[in-house]
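We examine the record.

___
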Amino acid sequence: MTSSHERIHLAIVTGASSGIGKATAERLAADGFHVLAGVRKQSDARTLAAPGIEPIILDVTDADHIRALVNRVTHDPDGRTLRVLVNNAGVAVNAPIEVLSLEDWRFQFDVSLFGQVALIRALLPVLLSTRGRIVNVTSVGGRVAMANFGAYSAVKFAMEALSDSLRREMEPFGVSVVKITPGAVSTNLTESGLAAASRIADTMTADQRLRYDELGRAFTAQAEGFARDGVTPERAAGVISKAVAARRPKTRYTIGRDGAMFTFMPRIVSDRMLDSMLRSQNKSLAKSKA
């Protein structure tokens, strides 16, 4: 492993308190970067701190936090330059569109889209000067919008568009923009998603409970399957490391078999056929929780 005084480049990883973000911070540190790892709690910062990993308190919706990060990058005490920004921070608030409050919609977009845009805009001058790399962690939800995932998919579809536009804007100036598309990954985002779904379910009317009972059971079964059978965060971090290290990176890297499948499926089947396939999948999942 590279010793701390030999680390000549900085990498930023947001949402680094657990899951893909934490594993990516650890992997990039092992690759020789000095990683500024964004977390929201001091307790997470204490747990994450390690050689090559410098936890930074970062709420991507807080302008003061972003300004402090830019200041930290531009006044690095060891003269290191920023070469990589991994946008991984996000939340999962899942519920039927009829049920999900506008407040929850705004929260999803503030954290998982507008916060990423604010951070990218603030750091682009530095990344342009170093011809750096931006890695945006999207999702299969940005390729296929399943029932119960309306807000989450809306954000991820938007991140797809943001990434494509940014890549085309930055290409002439030497800044690479890469999309990472995970399928099922075993992270605590699944647990937080289930907790949010339970909170929202408590607000449903009797008619809504009846209408979405099967969908709710399918979502629970699917989330439990992700936690049980999803790829490890470390495997996802390995893919991100590959995207960071590539001399000429691909525009997209998928993670897991389902990541690859859902990325290409919309190109080869009709909307109606995909609707039918997903409906059958939900019925099977719901039956397993009956």
The beta strands are 9-13, 34-39, 53-57, 81-87, 133-137, 176-182, 252-255. The chain has eleven helices and seven strands. The first strand starts at residue 9 and ends at 13. Residues 102-130 form the longest helix (29 residues).
